[in-house]
Amino acid sequence: MDEPRSLVAGGVGQFLRRWYGLVPAASSGAVPVGFAVPSELADWHAVTARATVPVTFQDHPIAFADLSPDPDGMLTFWVENQHGYFWAVDLKDPQRRVFCREVASDEWEPAGEDLRRFLLHGTLREAIFGADKKFTVFVDDSLVDDALESFSVLDFPALAGEEPGTKIWSSVDALARVGAPPAGYDRPGEQLQMITIAVPNDTSIETYGSRFGLEISDEAVTLPVEIPYEPPPF
User: Domain tally for the chain?
Assistant: First the structure.
């Protein structure tokens, strides 16, 4: 992963500045919650609270003032949009590993990321979902690397509820989410990947669209995708 050449170098604060062109360096007015919130989570809430636009669009964080650990010390801080999955940290764990559970289960399973990394992962993923300038294409699996030349794959695991192998890629001015399409999108013998490319509002998307033979105007918002089945889930 070549982070110095990507949008993610510098963490959440730097990414928000690059993507949304905002987030002043003022102190946060976070509301005390009566226990020691992990610094990574407190910092994330502090920097996103200064944003003047939404930074989450599908899954969402627990509001800072509503954070409350359960009796076992598990602090739920992130929720899937259908409330099917929950993510938490164990306040007793100095490594701040993130755990996930399904709504019908009491068992917490390792998510494969620590808290700081998860919060960056979630912020990037939400930026893709919420981008005004984005498009989705279907590419043969063998052509993904060529299609995403100038991008670097980021070492985030797929989240619970995503197709295994789902990855986020970054270039200097764009993000891409790559994963297997839902059932019914590919035909027998095909091995397709669904690629969604998103850019900030002040960045041209025309060059990225031209890689796939698409004529996209920077005046347009999200490009509809013509497919023979149901529309993509994002």
Answer: 2
Residue 117 lies in a domain: yes
165-195 burial, b at 16+ Cβ within 10 Å, e below that, comes to ebbbbbbebbbbbbbbbeeebbeeeeebbbb
CA distance 176 to 178: 6
Look at residue 229 in the predicted model and tell me its pLDDT: 35
Could you say which residues of the chain have pLDDT below 70?
Answer: 1-6, 22-34, 186, 220-234
- pTM, two decimals, is 0.87
| Domain assignment of residue 154, given as a range | 130-210
19 within a domain of the structure (yes/no): yes
Q: Where are the alpha helices (DSSP H) in the chain?
A: 11-20, 39-49, 115-130, 144-147, 206-210
Whether residue 57 is found in the same domain as residue 146: no
Confidence at residue 227, expressed as pLDDT on a 0 to 100 scale:
40
Q: Identify which of 9, 209, 40, 7 has the alpha carbon closest to the alpha carbon of residue 128.
A: 7
Closest CA relative to residue 161, chosen from 222, 103, 116: 103
On whether the CB atoms of residues 173 and 187 are closer than 8 A, the answer is no
Distance of CA 85 to the CA centre of its chain: 15
